[in-house]
Design brief:
The complex is a heterodimer of chains A (369) and B (220). Chain A has 3 domains: 177 residues, Rossmann fold, CATH 3.40.50.700; 74 residues, Cytochrome-c3 hydrogenase, C-terminal domain (Cytochrome-c3 Hydrogenase, Chain A, domain 2), CATH 4.10.480; 25 residues. Helix content of chain A is 41%, strand content 9%. Chain A contains 17 helices and 9 strands. In chain A, strand 5 and strand 6 form a beta hairpin. Chain A is elongated. The N and C termini of chain A lie far apart (118 Å). Chain B is mainly α and 220 residues long. Chain B has a single domain, classed as Transmembrane di-heme cytochromes, Chain C (Fumarate Reductase Cytochrome B subunit), CATH 1.20.950. Classes of the chains: A alpha/beta (369), B mainly alpha (220). At the A-B interface, helix 13 and helix 16 of A face helix 1, helix 2, helix 6, helix 7 and helix 10 of B.
Chain lengths: 369, 220
């Protein structure tokens, strides 16, 4: 039987086996520190901690997902810090990346869980049909996603929900949510859950969270949505290089107008940057080559909950989601009918009062007095 | 899913529909009532037309006569400042223009953001001044009702939350934007049932006045 226990080699030893120089290792530590907004004094601490760290066992569960998150992680560029990290954790179960199939694959997961009980990390990508949903909506080895998730996280040290589907329900949860999709956070209540949202998330953010865990033995500081503050603490808008154009009121109004060519703000083309918290503007994509807004496309807001249901990608943030001028007209007509009814009633009362008026003569009054 | 984004989506979705429906039903019910009840028929022979003087008065009454200006110069000047500021921020700020475009499909030019920002700051100061004046002026103090303070609060909060959202002074941003849209929705909801209705009825009343004077052949 293969030993799934946490390997005895430390990270430092393992790195040297992979031919990584001391300089390269320290560069990685410095990059990690700056990525997580830690002071430079933390670099030697990170280096010392990573040198001594044991590769943690990681079980990667894929549920209702498109494999985009894994694609993002594996498309990181050489010399890939991400690659190194992947070599430096013991990835014991991952549908797309593992060689084993069938019973052997499932056995690997169970053995890793047993050998590293209470210490292994679970990474989840994809949303999960909730406990009340038809279990057949998404199964692995004939078992429902919900069952596998709950079984796997029972003895885990922590759970990392990678991608917006796992973090917030994502596309499968979009209205009308036919599979009753839920996020990891909705289901796992008794373990630390960290959300690395994005569709897909930035690879460096996934590895940054892992590096933080290896360095400090605990998960990083999180925001209200359980996302690491180091990466999700600021909005796209606040760090956008096109922000000065927003502040000056210079906007592209179509995708091919002069404003678009001059690189002006994309707010009027539907950019969700103001309400989206992610690190795209600073870390960028494809090895730092570019990112959506730099490529001329508005931010879709993919790292936020319900981004599929948050209105058209091409409608500005200030436009209401469902109200239309037709609704307004209907309500106005309804109101006018109500008002007309009230006015008619009032007129009728006046007419009745006039018709029933009984004139009183001075003599009659005097008689009464 | 609860949280700031859920709040914003609810405010931009169902709550906006509710607010818009209450606004339109309330306002048009009042319009229908005003127009259908109308005025008593005037059997006197008209000395001149009523339409033109009516329309003319809708605008000329915006300028205070010299007597009013002398008696209440604060009301006239500060009133003008914040009314204009409010209208400019409402109609000429890019996100608001986009909202109108999204709702009605009509679009007009907007002012640069820093200009609207400055005007909004002036509007806020003017609004605070109106409150101080209302609270300290012996006559205003006595004639002010709950309605006056409610309307001031809602108008002030609409502008203030907009200013906070623009400057991103509240975090996370969906809360800031959601609060601003919510305040605007409360503004729409109370509009037909408070003195805010004057946004529309002031012009109707002026028309009636101008038309009545025109019919009598006197200048309004």
């Amino acid at each position: 039987m293969i030993d799934r226990k946490t390997p005895n080699k430390t990270l430092g030893e393992s790195l040297r086996d992979h031919g990584l120089s001391r300089r390269g290792f320290l560069k990685f530590c410095a990059a990690t520190a700056s990525m997580m907004a830690l002071p430079p004094g933390m670099v030697p601490v990170i280096a010392a901690a990573l040198e001594q760290a044991r590769r943690p066992s990681v079980i990667w569960l894929s549920f209702q997902e498109c494999t985009g998150c894994t694609e993002s992680l594996t498309r990181s560029h050489a010399p890939a810090l991400e690659d190194l990290i992947l070599n430096l954790i013991s990835l014991d179960y991952h549908h797309t990346l593992q060689a084993a199939a069938g019973d052997a694959a499932e056995d690997a997961r169970l053995q890793a869980m047993e050998a590293n009980t209470g210490q292994y990390l679970v990474i989840v990508d994809g949303s999960i049909p909730g406990p009340d949903s038809n279990p057949g909506f998404s199964t692995v080895a004939g078992r429902s996603n919900y069952e596998i998730l709950m079984e796997t996280v029972e003895h885990a040290a922590a759970v990392i929900a990678v991608g917006t589907c796992a973090a917030f329900g994502g596309l499968p949860q979009a209205s009308p949510n036919p599979t009753g999709a839920m996020s990891v956070m909705d289901l796992v209540k008794d373990k630390p859950v960290i959300n690395v949202s994005g569709c897909p998330p930035i690879p460096m953010v996934i590895t940054g969270v892992l590096a933080h865990y290896l360095t400090f033995g605990r998960l990083p500081e999180l925001d209200a949505y359980h996302r690491p503050l180091a990466f999700y603490g600021q909005s796209i808008h606040d760090r956008c290089y096109r922000r000065p154009f927003y502040d000056k009121g210079k906007f592209a109004e179509t995708f091919d107008d002069e404003g678009a060519k001059l690189g002006w703000c994309l707010y009027r083309l539907g950019c969700k940057g103001p309400s989206t918290y992610n690190a795209c503007a600073t870390m960028r994509w494809n090895g730092g080559v570019s990112w959506p807004i730099e490529s001329g496309h508005p931010c879709l807001g993919c790292s936020e909950p319900s981004f599929w249901d948050a209105g058209s990608f091409y409608q500005p943030l200030s436009v209401p989601l469902t109200a239309t001028s037709g609704d307004l007209l209907t309500a106005a007509v309804g109101g006018a009918v109500v008002g007309a009814g009230v006015a008619t009633l009032a007129n009728k009362q006046i007419k009745t009062a006039v018709a029933n008026r009984q004139p009183v003569t001075v003599e009659e009054l005097e008689e009464k007095l | 899913m609860s949280g700031s984004m859920a709040f914003l989506l609810w405010i931009k979705g169902p709550m906006f529909n509710i607010a818009l429906a209450i606004f339109a039903i309330g306002l048009f019910a009042r319009f229908a009532e005003i127009f259908l009840l109308g005025r008593k028929p005037n059997y006197a022979e008209p000395r001149a037309g009523e339409w033109l003087p009516g329309f003319k008065t809708m605008f000329t009454r915006s300028i205070a006569d010299p007597g009013t200006f002398q008696r209440a110069s604060f009301n006239v000047v500060v009133g003008w400042v914040w009314h204009l500021g409010f209208l400019i921020a409402l109609l000429l700020f890019v996100p608001h223009v986009e909202l109108m475009k999204g709702l009605f499909g009509i679009v007009w030019p907007a002012l640069p953001n820093p200009v609207v920002d400055l005007i909004t700051a002036i509007t806020l100061i003017a609004l605070v001044a109106t409150l101080v004046h209302r609270l300290t002026h012996p006559v205003k103090q006595r004639i002010s009702t709950f309605d006056d303070y409610l309307v001031w609060t809602v108008v002030f909060l609409v502008v203030l939350t907009g200013y906070l959202a623009y400057h991103r002074l509240v975090n996370p941003y969906p809360i800031a934007l959601g609060m601003h849209i919510l305040m605007a929705e409360i503004f729409l909801i109370i509009l037909p049932f408070t003195k805010l209705t004057h946004i529309f009825t002031a012009f109707i009343a002026r028309w009636y006045n101008g038309a009545a004077f025109g019919r009598k052949g006197v200048a309004s």
